[in-house]
Amino acid sequence: MYEYQISRVLDVFDGYSFEGIIDLGMGVYLKKVIYLSGICSPSINNEEQKDYGIQARNKLKYYLRNATRGEVTIRVDDYHDDTVYGIVYNKDFDDSINWIMFLKGYVWDDGISRPRLADQPMELFVLNTPKNKFFK
């Protein structure tokens, strides 16, 4: 796995994707859409999920605020053309932004990024939203 610095965040789309400029080193920069691996976010385009999606997007913007100071990095898991999937870190936190967004309840786990503990609930919903709101 490779780890790169995110030198600038251009736009945040929702609670788990944003557009940014990745610094590859030696003066090489890539403009990519970046997805946080292992989590899923409420959609801003869905009327039922819109309020929760906006809250998740605002929280991700807050966590990415240090990108211009060189304190945000990404560990790339996978990439396709204009899209990068990875785990994003901010030097202000002990763990990844992916994991913190999940623990705070703004996004839910898709079961891929981390092994599930026996006592950990199977699903965590945005701001304690009832289960039938997002899953039917």
Overview of this protein structure:
Residues 113-118 and 120-131 have low confidence and may be disordered. The strands form two sheets. Strands 1-2-3-6-5 form a five-stranded mixed β-barrel. It contains two helices and seven strands, in the order E-E-E-E-H-E-E-H-E. The protein is of the alpha+beta class and 136 residues long.
Topology (elements, then pairings):
Blueprint (H helix, E strand, L loop, with lengths): L1 E11 L4 E9 L2 E9 L2 E2 L9 H14 L8 E9 L2 E8 L6 H7 L4 E2 L27
Parallel strand pairs: 3-6
Antiparallel strand pairs: 1-2, 1-5, 2-3, 4-7, 5-6
What's a quick, concise take on this entry?
The chain is an alpha+beta fold and 136 residues long. It contains two helices and seven strands, in the order ββββαββαβ.
Class derived from helix and strand content: alpha+beta
- Spell the H/E element sequence: EEEEHEEHE
Distance between the termini: 36 Å
Shape call: globular
- In total, how many beta strands? 7
Catalogue the unreliable spans.
Answer: 113-118, 120-131
Give the proportion of residues in helices. 10-25%
Largest sheet strand order: 1-2-3-6-5
Number of helices: 2
- Assembly form of the protein: single chain
